[in-house]
Amino acid sequence: MKKKKLSLFVLIIAMVLVLYFTLKDDFSGVIAEFKKINIPIFLLAILVLLISLLFKSLSLKKFVCEYNSNYTVKKSYQLTLIGQFLNGITPFQTGGQPFQVYLLKKDGVRISDSTNAMIKDFLSYQIALIIVGILAILLSLKINVLTDNVYLNGLIFLGFIINFIVLVFLLLFSLTKKTGYKLAHMIVHFFLKFRLIRKIFKDENRIDEGLKHFYETGLELKKSKTIIFKCIFYNIIHLLLLYLIPFIVFKSLNYNGVSIIESLISISFVMLISNFIPIPGATGGIEYSFMQFFGVFASGAILSSAMLLWRFITYALAMIIGFITLILKKGVKKNENRTIY
User: Fold this and answer.
1) Which regions span the lipid bilayer (predicted)?
2) pTM of the predicted model, to two decimals?
């Protein structure tokens, strides 16, 4: 409970600081830009977000249906929306998956099966992220989208490498049981030397259990290659639609200084960097990255307004929708459990 309160406190402080530094130099200019928003185009950006999350939910549904053929798109979409809320309030987006496993249990999927489904879904998402990241880097080298900031450019490649290493480790753990066990225990013992992990036996048991799920998932992945390729495709569509939102936001502000390709590449770099920022929602770092990369194409009140609108849609609004979905789903569950005389 203390960790949750601390995460929420850090998130609020970070958001307040972001708003302060974004608005302090040209508050009236940002407000003036907000007044000129093209409402239909802005609503289109929200619609694109919802469609993007639909594709993400289609991936999850495919994997869950391997264990429960009656699992519907509606339930999967609800689960994805709830995940947006829980991931948004926890560091490194770690809060969604455990609760999603719990909700899947409520929908009749065994914990072991739902865990395997979540692992498969995360693997397909990670592969899609790497594919889109590679495409963005290759395109940026051709049309020179990279900034003059050596530090930021270094973070792009660092973010890509970290995500790639995560993918390699996930595949290693899931496809090679013996190697995965050895490597995991080596990592635990390495950190133990620096007293970063305590209660070693308890941690080792957790690792054994987790690796068992990974290995079981790996065995199933070998048998369902068609499904994994479909889900990678769904996640690529999800990411491309999500990355399209900044371009639409600039259009809603009647600004034409950034092309769709430049926008897609820039936001891809922003997301690669944000994945390893430990603050909930990557707040602070992700806004700074947006301002730096899109600062090549826009400036002043336009840039600040676009960033705030983009963050509202993809983060704040997504969390609000997820929270409402969670409340409604809980209400439905309570009603289902009532006995009517």
Assistant:
1) 37-55, 122-143, 155-176, 227-249, 255-273, 285-303, 309-328
2) 0.81
